[in-house]
Each structure stands twice: as structure tokens, then as C-alpha cells.
């Protein structure tokens, strides 16, 4: 059905989707939405009604039928969200997060499954946030393409920041432009929130934390790129001379930058236009955080610093982001003064590895070394503080060892799965190789079957680059006894492989390992070229029992 919605939206841009509410009430649709919601680790967190994943699974069928009947009768009343506060990235401040009840999350997920395929084909091509198969890396790669080089490239940038984005969106605008049942949307928007057992009504905005909130929030800003393109086409006539204003938008959710040829153009023409666009939606730019900078001075975007040094563009971790991760690491170290080295390493490794994985696509080698050195100094102080009466050589021999050709490796022991002692080592950021990101094709639509092969090839590359992905590949390879189920020949590092979804994702297939097989690249192309848009059983399908 998602594929059908997407194709209709692509082939008939003016089509008005009328009876979407009946799809929301469909029992099968609600079951799929419930399954997807319960797969999320957040399903163990309850809303104000106290219902968790375990409670829901105790009466799964009954809850689905009850939900379906309430939706059909239009008696479903969304409950207020439970408000909590979480730390803001790169800041000591906290931001509000709304936790809906589990039933409301399932309904929101069902709604997201309807809205996403309809709007995916219409979203601006340089919008990367809250969209399937797109990431911050794609936004950064786009910036690199536009700002690298000399002469013709873009020199001035607006660093855009919207004040209280999720809390300020106009309810009137949403009700007039979001294609869904207005009564349900109005109830959901005005459900309010509970904080310290006190109810607070909401007259504007969407709650951060709702499953459907990111999609709706994305719809609010969609159209800004086309608005700018209409007002500032690629070439304009200035007297008898043709000039390029170089106005382009790159957006990730509510974070965006806009390039321009001159500071005056951005300040006096582009900024007022953006402010008027936002004002219609109940939003406004933050005067303190929205600044215009030259690329030679650099700007921060999505945790990266983007700057030209003597004409050469370098994208590397921002100073704020570096301070944030080091602050987090030092907090963990100080909070584990009496922990063993092994347990401390188990706390630190996910932080360091996650941070390094995020920044591995930029010019990060020297930054990685500097971060590793700062962490080493913190650990050295931790080790000496634990043994004030021991000498330096004793402390080094106790905690820092030589592993292969690497000296001063912080190591410790933990209990393995079967209770046996197991040595663990501190992960170092500089040990992670720098890997350039390949930006996704702007036209990709995950609900369109013609992009299935392209997305599966990207998934194969992503899996090969990550430890978890390599473990999944090894598991699939062993399950297939090392052979391609299409041709029966061996799959080796020489032949290569592609990751194939037995039931295509554009046909509703899941992304779990039980719906995946490894195929030779040539066999993979043959499967997609012969199968077409039908679901005729293929040798791969027959072997693994998928429909």
C-alpha cells in the first residue's frame, strides 16, 4: 500500500488523497504499526498511563481490536505526553522531550506510514533530516560539493537557527496543510503535556518525542528551497551582465545553511524572505544564533566545522563537539573512581567509538589523535590517583600495556559471557580509518521499486564498513553455507556479494536478517531485472520460504 501511495503521488502530483482515515483504521495496518513501534527500544518507556511493551504484548490482539474500534468510532482521545528533559548536544542546557502513551505512539506510527510515502517524492532534494535512507553525512557531502574549489563556489553562508522550532509551529497552519483527518490531528496537537503531575495545555507546536512529529515538522519547512529558487534563480540579469546569486539551501530537519554570493544579498534579501516564510507557520529565526559568516571564517553545522584554509575546504569536528565528547568522557572517568579498569573501559568504549564513527568521514585524523591524547591524560590521572603510593613504572605496568606494535594501551579485565576472565582494551579514535561518504542520489525514493537495487548496494557497503554489519554478513554467509542461493556457486571475497531483501522493502519487506540473503552482484542484478514489479516466487524466495 505504501508503494501504491508513493506511485500515485509521483504520477499524479495534483491528486487529493481523500480516504486516508479508513487506512488508519485498518487492522492489518495497525498491526504492522504496532510491530514497528514495539521493535523500538523506547517501547519499554511508559507514557502517563504506565503501559509498557510487556503490558501491551500481554493482550496484543485485544489492544489492536480496541484501537481499531475507537478509531472507527472516532472516540479515540489522545492522552497528554509525559514531559522529561534530556541534555542538549554540545550544551549544558536541557531540552524538553514528550513521551506519548504506547497506544498513541502506535497510532502516530500508523499515520507516519501513510504520510511518509506520499510526501517523500515531493520533499526538497536538499532536505536530509527525518527522511529514510538519508543522514547528516549526505547533508555534509552536499555542502562539500558546493563549497569546495575556488572562484565559482559559494563564499557567504547564513547559519540558520529557528527559535523553539517544535514548540512554535502554528496549529492553524498544520490543520490547513497536513493531509489527514482534521479532528484527529486537532486532538493530538492540543493533547497537552504532564510535568510533575501538572497538566499544561498546548496552543502551538508538536511534542518532541512523538513518532509522527518529525515527519510533520519536516512538512512545515518543506517548500523553503523552492521558495528561494523562485526568488533567486540560478542566473539573473544585472543591467547588461548575467550574474549568479548562488543562493542554495541545505537543510537537515530545522538546522540549515543558505549560501550566497555576497553578505548584502543574504542580509537584505534572503533573510527577510526566510523570515516571512517562517512567520506564516508561526516560527521565527533566532536573532542570537542566526549569523552570516564568510567561508574563510568558517561555520559549525551538524557537529562539524566547515571552513576554507587558504582556499582549501576542510570539514572536521567542531570545537564545541570536541569539548562535549571530552566532557562526557571525563564525567564517566570521575564517576568511576573505584571501578576496575575493565569496567571503566566498557563504559568509555561506546562513547569514543560512537563519536569517532560519526566523524570518520571528515578531515579528522589529527583531531582523533588530539582527543585520544586528552583521554589518555585523564586516564593517567585516574590511575595515579588510585595508587598514590606507587611509582610511575608500577602504574604503567598495571594499567598500560604493549599490544602488538602499540604502546601505552589502557587495558583491563572483565568477566566474559561464561564467567571467564576476558581482557579488554580502550578503543582509540585514531585507530578508525577515515572513510569518505558517498552521498545518496537526490532522486532516491525508498518506496519506488526502481531504487531497490541501488539502496541494497548502498546497504551492502554500509554493512561491510561496520563491525555489526560484518557480523550480520558472516551470519548470513554461514546460513547459506557460503553459497549464492541464486546460482549455487560459492560466495568469496573475490566474487563479492550484495545484500538482497527477499521481500523488497518497497513491497513492505522488513530490514531484519531473516528477510536478507547474500547474492553475487551479477545474480543480484538478474533477480531484480527478471522479477520486475511482480511477486513471482524466485529461487531465493523458495529457498528461504518467503512469499
In helices, the fraction of residues equals: 40-55%
List how many beta strands DSSP finds: 18
* Coarse morphology: globular
Radius of gyration: 26 Å
Overview of the molecule:
With 547 residues, the chain is α+β, with helices and mostly antiparallel strands. Helices cover 44% and strands 16% of the residues. It contains 21 helices and 18 strands. It has helices spanning 2-11, 20-24, 27-39, 53-57, 60-72, 102-120, 136-147, 165-168, 171-177, 182-189, 213-221, 224-231, 263-279, 319-334, 341-359, 365-386, 392-399, 452-465, 467-479, 521-531, 539-544; strands at 81-87, 94-99, 156-161, 193-195, 198-200, 236-238, 241-243, 248-252, 255-260, 291-294, 299-301, 304-309, 312-317, 400-403, 406-415, 421-425, 498-501, 516-519. The strands form six sheets. A four-stranded mixed sheet has the order 2-1-4-5, with no helix packed on it. Helix 18 crosses helix 19. The longest helix is centred in the last third of the chain and has 22 residues, at 365-386.
Topology (SSEs and partners):
Blueprint: H1 2-11, H2 20-24, H3 27-39, H4 53-57, H5 60-72, E1 81-87, E2 94-99, H6 102-120, H7 136-147, E3 156-161, H8 165-168, H9 171-177, H10 182-189, E4 193-195, E5 198-200, H11 213-221, H12 224-231, E6 236-238, E7 241-243, E8 248-252, E9 255-260, H13 263-279, E10 291-294, E11 299-301, E12 304-309, E13 312-317, H14 319-334, H15 341-359, H16 365-386, H17 392-399, E14 400-403, E15 406-415, E16 421-425, H18 452-465, H19 467-479, E17 498-501, E18 516-519, H20 521-531, H21 539-544
Parallel strand pairs: 1-4
Antiparallel strand pairs: 1-2, 3-9, 3-10, 4-5, 6-7, 8-9, 11-12, 12-13, 14-15, 15-16, 17-18
Helix pairs in contact: 1-6, 3-5, 3-6, 14-15, 14-16, 18-19
Amino acid at each position: 500500500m505504501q508503494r501504491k501511495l508513493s506511485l500515485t503521488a509521483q504520477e499524479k502530483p495534483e491528486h487529493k488523497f481523500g480516504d486516508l482515515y479508513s487506512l488508519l483504521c485498518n487492522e492489518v495496518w495497525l498491526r504492522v504499526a504496532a510491530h514497528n513501534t514495539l521493535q523500538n527500544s523506547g517501547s519499554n518507556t511508559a507514557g502517563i498511563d504506565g503501559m509498557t511493551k510487556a503490558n501491551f504484548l500481554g493482550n496484543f490482539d485485544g489492544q489492536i481490536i480496541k484501537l481499531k474500534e475507537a478509531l472507527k468510532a472516532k472516540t479515540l482521545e489522545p492522552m497528554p505526553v509525559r514531559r522529561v528533559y534530556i541534555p542538549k548536544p554540545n550544551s549544558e542546557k536541557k531540552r524538553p522531550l514528550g513521551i506519548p502513551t504506547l497506544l498513541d505512539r502506535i497510532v502516530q506510527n500508523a499515520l507516519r506510514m501513510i504520510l511518509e510515502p506520499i510526501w517523500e517524492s515531493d520533499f526538497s532534494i536538499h532536505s536530509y533530516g527525518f527522511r529514510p535512507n538519508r543522514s547528516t553525512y549526505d547533508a555534509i557531502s552536499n555542502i562539500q560539493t558546493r563549497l569546495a574549489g575556488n572562484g565559482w563556489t559559494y563564499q557567504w553562508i547564513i547559519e540558520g537557527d529557528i527559535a523553539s522550532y517544535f514548540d512554535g509551529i502554528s496549529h492553524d497552519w498544520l490543520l490547513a496543510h497536513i493531509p489527514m483527518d482534521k479532528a484527529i490531528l486537532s486532538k493530538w496537537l492540543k493533547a497537552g503535556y504532564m510535568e510533575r503531575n501538572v497538566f499544561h495545555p498546548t496552543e502551538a507546536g508538536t511534542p518532541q518525542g512523538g513518532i509522527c512529529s518529525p515527519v510533520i515538522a519536516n512538512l512545515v519547512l518543506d517548500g523553503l528551497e523552492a521558495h528561494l529558487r523562485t526568488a533567486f534563480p540560478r542566473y539573473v540579469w544585472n543591467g547588461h551582465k548575467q550574474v549568479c546569486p548562488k543562493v542554495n539551501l541545505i537543510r537537515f530537519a530545522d538546522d540549515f545553511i543558505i549560501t550566497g554570493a555576497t553578505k548584502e544579498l543574504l542580509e537584505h534579501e534572503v533573510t527577510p524572505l526566510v523570515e516571512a516564510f517562517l512567520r506564516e507557520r508561526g516560527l521565527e529565526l533566532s536573532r542570537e544564533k542566526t549569523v552570516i559568516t564568510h567561508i574563510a571564517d568558517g561555520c559549525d553545522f551538524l557537529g562539524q566545522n566547515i571552513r576554507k584554509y587558504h582556499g582549501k575546504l576542510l570539514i572536521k569536528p567542531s570545537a564545541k563537539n570536541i569539548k562535549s565528547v571530552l566532557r562526557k568522557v571525563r564525567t564517566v572517568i570521575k564517576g568511576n573512581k573505584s571501578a576496575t579498569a575493565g569496567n571503566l573501559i566498557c563504559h568509555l568504549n561506546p562513547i569514543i567509538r560512537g563519536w569517532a564513527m560519526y566523524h570518520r568521514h571528515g578531515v579528522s585524523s589529527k583531531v582523533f589523535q588530539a582527543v585520544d591524547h586528552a583521554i589518555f591524560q585523564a586516564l593517567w590521572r585516574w590511575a595515579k590517583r588510585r595508587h598514590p603510593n606507587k611509582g610511575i613504572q608500577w602504574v604503567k605496568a598495571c594499567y598500560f600495556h604493549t599490544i602488538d606494535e602499540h604502546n601505552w594501551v589502557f587495558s583491563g579485565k572483565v568477566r566474559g559471557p561464561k564467567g571467564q576472565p576476558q581482557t579488554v582494551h580502550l578503543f582509540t579514535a585514531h585507530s578508525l580509518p577515515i572513510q569518505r561518504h558517498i552521498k545518496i542520489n537526490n532522486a532516491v525514493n525508498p518506496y519506488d521499486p526502481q531504487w531497490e537495487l541501488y539502496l541494497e548496494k548502498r546497504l551492502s557497503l554500509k554493512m561491510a564498513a561496520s563491525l555489526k554489519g560484518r557480523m550480520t554478513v558472516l551470519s548470513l554467509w554461514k546460513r547459506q553455507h557460503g553459497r549464492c542461493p541464486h546460482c549455487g556457486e560459492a560466495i568469496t571475497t573475490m566474487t563479492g556479494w550484495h545484500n538482497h531483501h527477499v521481500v523488497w522493502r518497497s513491497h513492505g519487506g522488513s530490514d531484519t536478517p531473516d528477510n536478507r540473503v547474500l547474492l553475487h552482484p551479477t545474480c543480484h542484478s538478474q533477480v531484480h531485472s527478471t522479477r520486475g514489479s511482480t511477486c513471482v516466487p524466485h529461487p531465493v524466495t523458495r529457498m528461504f520460504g518467503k512469499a
